Amino acid sequence: MSKRAYYQDWYGGDYPMYHGWRKRENGSNQFCGHPLYESKTKGLHCKCGDTQINKREPYSYHHIVGYYDEGPKNPRKIKRRGSAPKPPAPKETKLYQKMDKRSKHWGETNDCTVKATAIACGVTYEEAHGALALRGRIFRKGSNAGKYHAAIKSFGFAIERMPHISDYDTNYEPFKKLLKHPLSMVKTVGKIKDALPKRGIFLIKTASHVFTARAGEMHDWTRSTRQQRIQSIHRVKRVTQGDE
Q1: For 153-188, how does the pLDDT look when each residue is reduced to its tens digit (9 = 90+)?
Q2: CB 140 within 8 A of CB 106
Q3: Most buried residue, 24, 70, 114, 164, by CB count within 10 Å?
Q4: Per-residue model confidence as pLDDT tens digits over 95-129
């Protein structure tokens, strides 16, 4: 199968290779202009039938660096060495987009605790914002764990800290029985998605951020490739009459 030849210019662009001047039978020169092809049997050849074609023919100052696969529609370019393409960033969930839209409406910043509270408790952004404001959160300022934990409890939920590998030193062998949950062994944010159960509400806290994972989805702008270390994970449960 013949493959179409192309050359590379000084700026890195790839262009198809064309046949230049060829000698006619009477000794005169004639410009061909047909595209060049390469095959195992014929080598570098042209449709005009000229077989005396050199890869460094004087008509071109460029040398051949690769070939196009000749196909019926669009030629496929041969893959070159280089960095692998970046994976597409995962889209944010509709629930988080809704919270982010309300946040921009009120001109808020540093409100990850408000969004996490609203998503975990199933309330509106404004209700979670008001609950945190009553407990000392300042407008456009972050808040500590005690404040948003108290806000979550005010909506009728209980918070339970899960055993996590970050709570122990490198020698966690004696505590393996406590680390039964798949999330207990996850060290970074990028590995959470694979360990999330399909049911349950979890608050994941890092050094400077907190977000909610609910129904097997991460409701946050955080990308699944981030390597930020997890500091703690809390399970959020609705308080029933029997638990009171």
Answers
A1: 999 999 999 988 888 765 666 666 677 888 988 989
A2: no
A3: 114
A4: 999 999 999 999 999 999 999 999 999 999 999 99
- The residue behind tokens 């990308």 is 223
CA distance 132 to 111: 10
- Among candidate residues 236, 238, 237, 229, the one with its CA nearest the CA of residue 164: 229
Q: Are 36 and 7 in contact (CB under 8 A)?
A: no
3-state secondary structure of 119: helix
Burial of 51 (0-12, 13-18, 19+ CB in 10 A): exposed
Crossing angle of the two packed helices 145-154 and 125-134, in degrees rounded to 10: 120
What's the rounded Cα separation, in Å, for the pair 34 and 32?
Answer: 6
Q: Is the dihedral of CA 109, 115, 116, 121 positive or negative?
A: positive
Q: Angle 186-191-196 (CA atoms, 0-180°, nearest 5)?
A: 75
